[in-house]
Amino acid sequence: MIGEKIKAARIEKGLTAKELAIKSEVTPGYISQIERELISPSLSVLMRIAKVLEIPIVSLFSQEEQEQVTVIKKDNRTKIRFADINMEYQFVTPFSRTKNTCTQMEIIYFCLGPKSWGSSKVQFHEEAAECVLVTKGTLEYHINDTVHVLHEGDSIYLPPKTYHQLYNPTDDDTEAIGVISPAEY
Question: Which of 11-20, 34-43, 83-92, 104-113 shows the lowest per-residue confidence on average (mean pLDDT)?
Fold first, then answer.
């Protein structure tokens, strides 16, 4: 499914697999394996591919284009788990392969397990701001040499290009809602 969407977007953009590979900093064989659904790429590779194709990364996971007014039931959220991120993302907002009103922002519900990092890599959004509200538990935001500890009901705002890592220091799950604007995934 993801590979088919990458191939369709690549062709729509008029790029060869080799051109996409070079611009995404991977090999042409790697792009071929992705497009043939032989491998599952990491989040960082998918982000580079989506950037080259000028599409939101979440569009690679969508089932269909959304209308402007959309109701998403709790049980029908798009759920994504990446190999290099220790969280499951559940998209609360609709998304689209094209950059229309559905992709002006993203709201993501996520759960981070006990004593775990959100990712082993430092995260940031090149052009998007991020705001997170903790709905259950405790969440640490590690930004440079500062640790911001958020408890249930606390929130944090990060401007674009803010390098950060998330950590759950407790023995219980932490749940939060994140808003990214403009949409990046």
Answer: 83-92
